[in-house]
């Protein structure tokens, strides 16, 4: 099987073949065997040429985030035209009011309180994911309608963490 994908906006092509429990991977220049084992839903162990590597995964929509040997990468399928990332659909007004984490992680700080007025790009919360702190910012001018999580909670990119309301 052959795959094309973008890593940090650079196109890569890779082919995979599976023989018994080992993957044969080729990038056009190199070919190597890899034993891939899932440790959990967001972590896997890859054994390549006798060396074990841990890879952490997170997903948001069509983007995947990888942490490998202390480096973070964004992986995404190329667009149909091959000119870059697949464009996200315009966020609806309702989606703008529901603030989500960019990837699974742990809420380490909530910077606002319910009924507080917020401005566009104001930091609402901080979520730690893959050993990085991500500031979750407001996309609108408005008010905090409801805080749906607490500090220390584990969150994913599917469920909202804060609900906003617009200025009337």
Summarize the structure.
The chain has 1 helix and 16 strands. By secondary structure, it is an all-beta fold. It has 2 domains: 75 residues, no CATH class; 74 residues, RNA polymerase II/Efflux pump adaptor protein, barrel-sandwich hybrid domain (OB fold (Dihydrolipoamide Acetyltransferase, E2P)).
Number of domains: 2
The count of helical stretches stands at 1
Q: Supply Rg.
A: 19 Å
Distance between the termini: 54 Å
- Tell me the strand percentage band: over 45%
Number of strands: 16
Largest sheet: 8 strands, antiparallel, barrel
Placed side by side, the strands forming the largest sheet appear as 1-2-3-4-5-6-7-8
**Secondary-structure element order, N to C:** EEEEEEEEHEEEEEEEE
Unreliable parts: 81-91
Helix content: under 10%
Structure, described:
The chain folds into two domains: 2-76, no CATH class; 93-166, OB fold (Dihydrolipoamide Acetyltransferase, E2P), CATH 2.40.50.100. The chain has one helix and 16 strands. The chain has one helix at 93-97, and strands at residues 2-7, 10-19, 22-26, 31-40, 43-48, 51-60, 63-68, 71-76, 98-100, 105-110, 117-118, 123-129, 132-137, 142-147, 154-155, 160-166. The longest helix is centred in the middle third of the chain and has 5 residues, at 93-97. The termini are far apart.
């Amino acid at each position: 099987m052959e795959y094309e994908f973008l890593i940090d906006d650079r196109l890569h092509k890779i082919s995979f073949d599976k023989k018994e429990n080992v993957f044969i991977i080729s990038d056009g220049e190199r070919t190597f065997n890899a034993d891939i084992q899932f440790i959990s839903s967001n972590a896997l162990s890859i054994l390549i040429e006798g060396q074990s590597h841990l890879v952490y995964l997170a997903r948001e929509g069509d983007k995947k985030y990888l942490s490998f040997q202390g480096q973070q990468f964004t992986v995404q399928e190329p667009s149909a035209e091959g000119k870059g990332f697949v464009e996200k659909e315009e966020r609806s007004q309702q989606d703008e009011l529901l603030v989500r984490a960019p990837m699974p992680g742990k809420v380490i700080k909530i910077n606002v309180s319910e009924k507080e007025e917020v401005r566009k790009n104001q930091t609402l919360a901080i979520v730690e994911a893959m050993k990085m702190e991500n500031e979750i910012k407001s996309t609108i001018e408005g008010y905090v309608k409801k805080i749906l999580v607490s500090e220390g909670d584990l969150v994913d990119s599917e469920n909202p963490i804060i609900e906003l309301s617009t200025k009337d």
